[in-house]
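Ticket #309: bound-state structure for 2-acetamido-2-deoxy-beta-D-glucopyranose.
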Amino acid sequence: MHFLTVLIVPILIANSSGVELWSYFRNQRQDLRVDAADIKFELYTNTNTEVEILSVDSLDDLIKSNYYNRSVRNVFTLHGWTGTILRSMSSGITDAIFASGEPANIFVVDWSIPAGQFYPFVVWSMPSVGQIIANYIDKMIDHFEIEASNFILVGYSVGAHLAGIIGSNVNGTVGQIVGLEPVWIMFSPDDLANVLDKTDAAVVHIAHTTYGFGQAAISMGHADFYFNGGQTQPGCEDSHCSHDRSHIYYAESILSSGFKAVKCSSYEEFKNGDCDGNEEAIFGGYPLDESITGDFHLDTAEAAPFALG
Ligand SMILES: *[C@@H]1O[C@H](CO)[C@@H](O)[C@H](O)[C@H]1NC(C)=O
Ligand SMILES: *[C@@H]1O[C@H](CO)[C@@H](O)[C@H](O)[C@H]1NC(C)=O
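RESOLUTION: The complex was predicted; output attached.
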């Protein structure tokens, strides 16, 4: 990890005093080109317990795969800043999808080389990373004669915005995007090409567990779920833990229908009972429930299983 990353992370995560620093970097925006060789996919399927590593340069590895099944959904998981998050985030979700018995080709995207840089360089690399992955998906659509609606992108933290960038670059409308705690440092909700929003897929659901960092809650999906108010999570002592909960909740939701949420415009109203009797929705699942729209609130337990039923 870049030494500056180590220096800046605590400032960034611990409080919002980094805000001015980030607006400085936001104004220095550059477009950094990423080499496709710096991105890899790990392919997991229901019929294969051994991972296959796929080069992103061409479709050749996928065409040669003995396990890829063009008849089932394609799930891409996108980790956040720094590569260390890759394993915990993707393995929880991958294991849950296979345990659910639903078929899937799961592409665990390893973009840890560009994602391991100093934060502003990560943000400035994302349009290029997103374009490379979108081109790959376009090639899959052409070669295997499948529909864009067959794709589900699951992104965590900055990876949620990466899912949005991919969705807006794919030729066609991606089926679903699960945005797990999109972080807003150096991103602007007005810059729709570079952030996750509901134009990026037919269905976009977002989990909020740590909004803050100096900005307001921003609902950008067809459905936005605010957990425990969306800022801090019970049983967590720091923001890292609360941030991580977004993908832990999503993995649990694939095997549980217990994350029952209520349509409500604020946590205060939710806690006051003002929203009792409003429309209910279940967070998450694989695939997502396409009929849900709006802002929803729910509470969780402090430890797994988190869903309260
Ligand atoms: C591919 O998926 C379809 C639909 O789930 C299934 O019927 C078929 O057996 C699978 N093919 C292989 C080779 O596993
Ligand atoms: C986009 O998709 C359409 C319909 O499948 C196809 O005709 C067209 O060639 C594609 N465009 C590109 C740039 O791949």
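RESOLUTION NOTES: The first helix runs from residue 3 to 14.
TICKET STATUS: resolved
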